[in-house]
Amino acid sequence: MLTYAFRRLLGMIPLMILVSVVVFSLAKLMPGDALMGKIDPKNSSPQYIAEMREKLGYNQPILTQYWSWIKHVLQGDLGQSFVHKKPVGAIIAERIPNTLLLMLLSLCITYSLSIAMGMYAGRRPNRLGDHFILSLNYVAYSIPTFVAAIAAIYVFSFKLGWVPASGSIGIGLDEGSFSYYISKLKYAILPSLVLGLFSTAAYTQFLRNEIMENSRKDYVRTAMAKGTKLSRIYSVHIFQNSLIPLITFLGFDIGALLSGTVVVETIFTYPGIGQLVIQSVNSRDYSVLMSVMMLLSFMTLIGNLIADLLYGLVDPRIRLD
């Protein structure tokens, strides 16, 4: 398994090079540049703008600019943010723990609810509980993310007052204290719930269909003929074989959740990577934007690697050579 993981990590190198070319090209094709996000052209002299472009290297050939950027990235220098007036690496390091917390909570919500409801609906198809779960899935799947986020804020924050509507931490708390972490968790519950429920609907439906299909397989009839309890057949044999396709989704979820936080974090004013993307686009802070896009691509590749490694743990018949 370690050899397989090492080979996969080596295979990521050409993919990341290709991603870097695409990200850099898209940034250059966007209107304006980082300098235009820093100064007001109407209040700046053309001579000053020309001098700044020359100083920042924007007048150099595209290939020269790309090589200069990628060389600094390989050295750990992601550049300087014009908007935040600090290194890009420091900005991402401040924001990414919040986004990772959202991801972790949303994954826990997604897989715990989808496994529980999918197992129940797949074991008892076409009954009242199954129809109720399917109806919930259709409703949840059809509601746009921003609508669900606004509705959740209105109900759980404004009406019930259970959780805060925005932000990521309470005021006046000592970092590292127990109350600090409780506050972080409290502020992350609502956005992670909105982020996780939409995948829950799709995964529940998928797991239900997988369980129904696997329950008709020959190995199930063999286990029943041997006198194995029906509860064990469903909880071990059928569930284990139905879980393998969900692991495939896990690999995509890691990258998809990072990009999906753009809408959720913006609505909840949650200071994470998603909100940073919107701010960087609006202010043309391309050094931050390119670094975040590279991070999203890398996390997607890592997620696929984790999913492949989990295959061998869930199903011993799958060999990773």
UniProtKB/TrEMBL annotation:
Membrane topology: Multi-pass membrane protein
Keyword DNA-binding: no
Subcellular location: Cell membrane
GO term, biological process aspect, one: transmembrane transport
Cellular-component GO terms for this entry: plasma membrane
All residue ranges annotated as the ABC transmembrane type-1 domain in the record: 96-307
Entry-linked SUPFAM superfamilies: MetI-like (SSF161098)
Record key words, sorted: Cell membrane, Membrane, Transmembrane, Transmembrane helix, Transport
Pfam families referenced in this protein's UniProt entry, alphabetically: BPD_transp_1, BPD_transp_1_N
Family matches, as PROSITE patterns: ABC_TM1
Residues passing through the membrane, by range: 9-27, 100-120, 132-156, 187-207, 288-314
Similarity section: Belongs to the binding-protein-dependent transport system permease family.
Listed name of the protein: ABC transporter permease
Organism: Paenibacillus psychroresistens
